[in-house]
Every structure is written in structure tokens, then in C-alpha cells.
């Protein structure tokens, strides 16, 4: 009886794993411009690629569908690393042609905390040159085995290659893993390594000034002059001033400093305030009124160093 059950299980697995793409598309390659798209995720939210890229790099993970055992294993592997990806300032997104309710099931059974998008009729997959037609024998196996048409909501016998891309903030593909043999998958550690290198390279001309001193003279000479000049003269592609420690109290009470910081914001300097520090000195609401971005407690300054930023503390 046990042997019979094992045989049946093996046959079901073989059905899902059959049909290696013989005439598969090749997929977009490194250096190509990533086509923009807007798709709904498992929560019904619209997700736009280029809006995500404004926050940092994006890791795009195509999977064939929740019916694919290898895809589920791969998604779980990425789920285990999603915190590392987020710490690098990147966003992980999964895409497949399966219907929204199927995407919800896939996200729930694999406990995925990242966005799982439904690409109706493989429209986006085609733009990335990932979609291929199943041969008649394989299409028949898929339909009888688990009902491919019920997963995708159409009778098109096609699936995407399970590709993995890393796209930089300018929309350029910097890492691509696409293989016509869909049993070959990207190594998650290689993805993290390539993402780390990308982040460090792109951030090495970005400056973060951590202002912790409550000495007004230090404020005048360093915090209010150097970042301003750096941004104006393009010494750095991006300058961020972090309000940390006692400086939070000083800024909240000094209207002259507030005015100068406003000028810096106009020049493109990003200003962030440590929420824990603001709470400690009772000035959280005041800093919010000044429209400073909040530095979450879960975003320690060490993360800037990890991402390759130039960090100066004063």
C-alpha cells in the first residue's frame, strides 16, 4: 500500500515537472531596460515597478504558479531571505500568471510577506520575453493533472520561465537568471551577493551626516554648511542629514536652525529624524510639523554603512 501511494505521489509530481521548454523565450538580459508595469498583489493593492524603484532596487521573481512544487520551494527560500533583501534597501516582488485567488493561496501556504502579483494572460511576462507555449502532450498533462486553465483563467497553454531579476533604481537590469530548463533556479545566496554589490556600488557616492551634537556652533559650521555645499556642488549624488540624540531637542527649539534646514531640503538634502531620540526629548510632534522623514527604530545607522554610504558623525 505504501509503495502504491509513493508511486501515485511520484506521478503527480512528474506531471507538474514535465515539459522543459524546448522553444522557450530567452528573457531580457543584463543591461536591458526593465519594462514598467502595474499589477495587483494578493491584497488587492496596485503595485507599480517604477514607483518601487524610487525607493531602491527591486528583485523580481517570476514563478510558474502555485501548482509547481519547485516554484513553492523557491518562494519559501526567498521568503527566508526577504529580511536581508529589505535591509539592503531593496524590494522583493513575485509574479505569475495565476488568478488573484490562486496568488492569495500561494502567498498564504508559503507564508510570503512580500507582494505576489497576478500577471493576467502573461502580459508583463511577454514584455520580459519569458513566456513560452507548452507542447500538446505537456499541455494535456497539466490540464488533467491540476487544471492549468483554472489557475490562469484561460485556455492558453503557456507559462513563463521562472526568472529572477535585480533591477537598479534607474530601471536597468543588473542581474538576470533565465534558463530554458525551468528546473534550474537562481541561487538565493548569489542573488543576495549580487544585490549587496549593486547597493554598495550605487551608494558609495552618497553621504549620510549623523548630527548628534547639541552645540550650536557645530550646527552652524558643519550641519548647515557642508551638506548644503555638497549638494550644490554635486560632491555627492545624494546627501542625508540624520537628526540624532540631543540635536533633536536643539532643532525643535531653534527657529533659525529650522529655517536653514528648510533651505537645505529645498536644495535636495534629505532630512531624517530618529523617532526614538525625538520621543526621548519630547519633541516628536514638533519634528513631524517640520516635515522631517522619520528614521524608524528598525533602521539603525549601521545599515547605512552596510549599504555602502559614506557616513560622518558629529
TrEMBL record:
Domain (Thioredoxin): residue spans on this chain: 28-200
Entry-linked CDD domains: PRX_like2
Keywords associated with the record: Antioxidant, Disulfide bond, Oxidoreductase, Peroxidase, Redox-active center
EC top class named in words: oxidoreductase
Keyword Oxidoreductase: yes
Enzyme Commission code: 1.11.1.24
Catalytic activity line of the entry: a hydroperoxide + [thioredoxin]-dithiol = an alcohol + [thioredoxin]-disulfide + H2O
Pfam family, one: AhpC-TSA
GO molecular function, one term: thioredoxin peroxidase activity
Swiss-Prot/TrEMBL GO biological process terms: cell redox homeostasis; cellular response to oxidative stress
InterPro entries from the UniProt entry: AhpC/TSA (IPR000866), DsrEFH-like (IPR027396), Peroxiredoxin_BCP/PrxQ (IPR050924), Sulphur_relay_DsrE/F-like (IPR003787), Thioredoxin-like_sf (IPR036249), Thioredoxin_domain (IPR013766)
Keyword Disulfide bond annotated: yes
Matches recorded under SUPFAM superfamilies: DsrEFH-like, Thioredoxin-like
Family: Belongs to the peroxiredoxin family. BCP/PrxQ subfamily.
Protein name (Swiss-Prot/TrEMBL): thioredoxin-dependent peroxiredoxin
Gene: resA_58
Amino acid at each position: 500500500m505504501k509503495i502504491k501511494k509513493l508511486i501515485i505521489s511520484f506521478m503527480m509530481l512528474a506531471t507538474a515537472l514535465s515539459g522543459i521548454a524546448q522553444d522557450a523565450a530567452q528573457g531580457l538580459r543584463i543591461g536591458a531596460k526593465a519594462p514598467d508595469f502595474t499589477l495587483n498583489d494578493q491584497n488587492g493593492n496596485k503595485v507599480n515597478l517604477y514607483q518601487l524603484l524610487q525607493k531602491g532596487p527591486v528583485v523580481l521573481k517570476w514563478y510558474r504558479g502555485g501548482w509547481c512544487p519547485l516554484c513553492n520551494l523557491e518562494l519559501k527560500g526567498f521568503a527566508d531571505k526577504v529580511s536581508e533583501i529589505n535591509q539592503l534597501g531593496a524590494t522583493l516582488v513575485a509574479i505569475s500568471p495565476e488568478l488573484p485567488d490562486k496568488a492569495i493561496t500561494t502567498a498564504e501556504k508559503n507564508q510570503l510577506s512580500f507582494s505576489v502579483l497576478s500577471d493576467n494572460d502573461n502580459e508583463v511576462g511577454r514584455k520580459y520575453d519569458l513566456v513560452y507555449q507548452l507542447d500538446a502532450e505537456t499541455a494535456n498533462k497539466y490540464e488533467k493533472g491540476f487544471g492549468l486553465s483554472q489557475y490562469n483563467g484561460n485556455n492558453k497553454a503557456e507559462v513563463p520561465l521562472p526568472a529572477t531579476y535585480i533591477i537598479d533604481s534607474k530601471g536597468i537590469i543588473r542581474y538576470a537568471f533565465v534558463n530554458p530548463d525551468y528546473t534550474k533556479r537562481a541561487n538565493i545566496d548569489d542573488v543576495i551577493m549580487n544585490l549587496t554589490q549593486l547597493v554598495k556600488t550605487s551608494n558609495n557616492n552618497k553621504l549620510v551626516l549623523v548630527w548628534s551634537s547639541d552645540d550650536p556652533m557645530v550646527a552652524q559650521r558643519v550641519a548647515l554648511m557642508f551638506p548644503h555645499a555638497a549638494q550644490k556642488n554635486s560632491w555627492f549624488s545624494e546627501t542625508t542629514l540624520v537628526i540624532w540624540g540631543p540635536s533633536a531637542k536643539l532643532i525643535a527649539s531653534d527657529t533659525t536652525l529650522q529655517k536653514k534646514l528648510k533651505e537645505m531640503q529645498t536644495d535636495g538634502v534629505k532630512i531624517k529624524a530618529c523617532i526614538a531620540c525625538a520621543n526621548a526629548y519630547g519633541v516628536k510632534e514638533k519634528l513631524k510639523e517640520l516635515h522631517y522623514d522619520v528614521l524608524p527604530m528598525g533602521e539603525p545607522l549601521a545599515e547605512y554603512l552596510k549599504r555602502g554610504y559614506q557616513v560622518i558623525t558629529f
